[in-house]
Design goal:
Shape: globular
Structural class: alpha+beta
CATH superfamily: Polyphosphate kinase middle domain
CATH architecture: 2-Layer Sandwich
Order of helices and strands: HHHHEHEEEEEHHEHEHEH
Largest sheet: 6 strands, mixed
CATH class: Alpha Beta
Strand order of the largest sheet: 2-4-3-7-8-9
Strand content: 5-15%
Distance between the termini: 77 Å
Helix content: 25-40%
Number of strands: 9
């Protein structure tokens, strides 16, 4: 039996589309990835999930956004600095993509903050409270004073910022506080920077029941007089840095081991891609931070980011409590867990893109 023959294709009969018509059929790759991350965030709003699972989804969303800026946005920023005008499949230049990404990322960050505020209230109802400085009782405050002097104060190193002391290097994902001070004895102004060591717990468990936590930056700000005795605080703020962590693979390198070793060292000091500033930071301190980090070309957000990661088990939706065999539940009861230890990204929500590796990340909320 003869197989049917195909009629020859007449190219003249194929409708020709203009470049604009062809580009309208594509989504922008980067904006599409942010839309995916928004769907991850929506899982944190799903009341059908156990409460701690919802918190983990919020953590995933923040961690993903960090990785997105470190790799994808960093690549676009490099193209913009090199004046590359090549358009993406949907017809956008690198500069246009960066502008659109900045707006969408700010909206996503604002939504993350809203979700955290909602989850914070739900956590309080379930017996896990995140305290503000103003909420502390006198007995708790006395315990915190002792804890700060014994555990936190010895590892903090304020650094003066003046012509003799240039702005220090802030590593990728580094979280810092900056202060404008005035010496009470003679009115001499001074500016101090305090990098929060990554070894410190993100949240500190307060003694007693129910489980209560306070953010490390709130604890430090509570003890400013201990850090700077004899000084008046004129202004202060917090900021966080996201640096370029993209690696360009040169397959023809003579020594790949040496190439990657040097590339990883360079990555640690990559240019600032995103600068997250506390909304209440004074303009003078904001200008100092931008200049000190050489972040004139960085995307700046005045909204804080969010949490960390580790391992947790879901809460029971029937009782609102964790099961007694849950490691996180035991850690909360004995006080060995920090709030950052309840948000481990479940594998189902991880992105499959090989260009955005999932690594542990610490990020901060607006407390």
């Amino acid at each position: 039996m003869d197989s049917p023959s195909l009629a020859p294709l007449n190219l003249e009969e194929v409708p020709q589309r203009t470049p604009d018509e062809a580009r309208s059929r594509y989504f922008n790759r980067e904006l599409s990835w942010l839309a995916f991350n928004r769907r991850v965030l929506e899982e944190a709003c799903n009341a059908a999930h156990p409460l701690l699972e919802r918190l983990r989804f919020l953590s995933i969303s923040g961690n993903n956004l960090d990785e997105f800026f470190m790799v994808r946005v960093a690549g676009l920023k490099g193209q913009q600095l090199l004046n590359v005008e090549e358009r993406s499949a949907d017809g956008m230049t690198p500069a246009q993509q960066l502008a659109a990404l900045g707006e969408e990322a700010d909206r996503l960050t604002a939504n993350q903050q809203e979700v955290w505020n909602s989850l914070r209230s739900a956590l309080g109802e379930a017996g896990i409270e995140v305290m503000r400085r103003s909420d502390l009782e006198e007995e708790t405050a006395a315990w915190l004073d002792q804890y700060f002097r014994g555990q936190i104060f010895p590892v903090l190193t304020p650094q003066a910022i003046d012509p003799a002391h240039p702005f220090p290097f802030i590593p990728n994902k580094g979280f810092s506080l900056i202060f404008d001070l005035k010496r009470l004895s003679d009115g001499q102004p001074i500016r101090e920077l305090l990098m929060v060591p990554a070894t410190l717990p993100r949240f500190v468990r307060l003694p007693g029941e129910p489980a209560r936590y306070i953010a490390i930056e709130s604890l430090i700000r509570r003890h400013i007089s201990t850090l700077f005795p004899g000084y008046e605080v004129l202004g202060h703020g917090a900021f966080r840095v996201i640096r370029d962590s993209d690696l360009e693979v040169e397959e023809e390198a003579e020594d790949l081991v040496r190439y990657f070793r040097s590339a990883i060292k360079r990555r640690r000091r990559g240019r600032v891609i995103r600068l997250e500033l506390e909304a209440e930071m004074p303009e003078e301190l904001e200008a100092v931070v931008r200049e000190g980090l050489d972040a004139s070309e960085a995307l700046v957000s005045d909204r804080p980011a969010s949490s960390g990661s580790a391992t947790s088990k879901p809460w029971s939706r029937k009782t609102g409590r964790t099961s007694s065999s849950c490691p996180t539940a035991r850690a909360f009861r004995n006080g060995s867990a920090s709030m950052a230890a309840i948000a481990s990204p479940p594998s189902a929500a991880r992105t499959s893109s090989s260009t955005i590796p999932m690594r542990r990340s610490r990020w901060w909320w607006n407390f």
